[in-house]
Specification:
- It is a single chain.
- This protein is mainly alpha-helical.
- About 50% of the residues lie in helices and about 5% in strands.
- Strand 2 and strand 3 form a beta hairpin.
- The chain is elongated and about 85 Å long.
- The longest helix has 23 residues.
- It has 3 domains: about 130 residues, Cytochrome Bc1 Complex, Chain D, domain 2; about 100 residues, Orthogonal Bundle (Cytochrome Bc1 Complex, Chain D, domain 2), CATH 1.10.760; about 80 residues, Cytochrome c-like domain (Cytochrome Bc1 Complex, Chain D, domain 2), CATH 1.10.760.10.
- Helix 10 packs across helix 11.
- It binds heme C (3 copies).
- The site of one heme C (HEC) has 23 residues, from helix 12, helix 13, helix 14 and helix 15.
Amino acid sequence: MKSWAIVVMLATVTSVAALGASHSLGAAAPDGRAVFLQNCTACHEPEGEGGGPYPPLAGDPNVTQADSASLVRLILNGRSGPVSVDGTQYGGDMPGWRAQLSDAQIAAVITYIRSAWGNNAPAVSSEQVAAARLPETLTGAAIFTLKCSACHLPSGQGTDDFPALAGDALVTAADPSAMLGIIVNGRTGPVVLNGKTYSGIMPAWPGQLTDADLAALATYIRSRWGNHASPVTEEDVIAAGPTISLRIGASVFANNCSVCHGNEGGGGVGPALAGNARVTGDPDALLTTIMQGKSSMPSWRGQLSDGEIAAVATFIRTSWGNSASAVSVQAVTAIK
Ligand code: HEC
Ligand code: HEC
Ligand code: HEC
């Protein structure tokens, strides 16, 4: 609904601009028609009719397709080699515009060609162009194909058992940390999304995806299939780290420690960890206990990754009223 309104608005703005009143736009948003006239008409003609080796853009389904991602990549990177539009083959060089045009200009010109000459497709945002510029975007696609598409489908549409990532509110949330937490740590249902209950298992990927991988993957799923959320950088992933780490720590604790130390760290076979000065004290001594074990406390070296040990140590130092500093993976590695 929203993007439809934008298309209508742009169409109106365009005809106003044609009457010479483009200053009534107010905001400094680039005028897609002007960008088109300046850069594209030499080959595609003013009405997008094309000719010779240059394909028409009016009525071209590759221009108006619902999933605009490949169109954005084409305008950014260019393309050469045969393409067939409406049964006719075209084969020349379409230049890339990544160096000449800004994200906002590229978004404006794409929005323009998608809504001019009878074309009628949703607008493209400059955030989407920014995302497509990142080198990570391709890697993100590769990781998604490898690790995620079996369940969520290459189209991101999901199935009866696996939720759609296209149009998912958590995937496109302004703050990506909750989504990153689920990707790293997995989650077990049931969860209700768009009125449907999913009760499968989303696998965990702790230690298998680097921060850069996560940034690429997150950027990819936030900018595909009609999703238009901002890209996620490696810095964003690092900033979300404490949240993610706590989620991992909580599940490591639940799976490995609570049986002896109690669900709430209140103790059992092993001592209480809540309010325990050895837990909140010197982190190196704590890590040594966890990694080497102590009488009937098992050794976790080799059973848990360094990342998991750092996460569970951080978890027990900050849960149930404990409030000590976080423990880094580097601190765990240094114990070895
Ligand atoms: C120098 C000539 C030239 C210029 C300038 C040019 N294009 Fe192209 N464009 C082409 C050619 C040739 C193709 C076909 C490429 C192929 O064969 O793969 C093409 C293909 C395209 C396509 C894909 C059509 C399809 O169905 O796959 C789009 C969209 C497009 N151009 C948009 C633009 C826009 C927007 C601009 C301006 C920012 C622009 N072009 C500027 C020559 C040009
Ligand atoms: C084995 C199947 C499977 C694979 C592989 C898988 N997922 Fe999932 N995913 C699920 C299931 C099932 C859920 C719902 C989990 C629940 O019920 O809490 C889910 C949930 C999610 C959610 C949360 C959606 C929401 O709004 O709560 C995100 C995001 C997600 N998956 C992303 C990914 C990514 C990215 C990958 C690849 C790294 C991936 N998934 C791989 C099965 C899978
Ligand atoms: C099989 C039962 C058992 C499991 C599982 C277990 N522990 Fe322990 N843990 C103990 C016992 C018993 C002690 C007391 C050892 C001693 O002081 O002789 C202990 C001691 C500790 C201590 C030191 C507390 C103190 O006051 O000195 C910490 C910290 C700790 N465990 C953390 C963990 C963590 C983290 C996990 C999961 C990764 C875990 N434990 C799993 C039984 C267990």
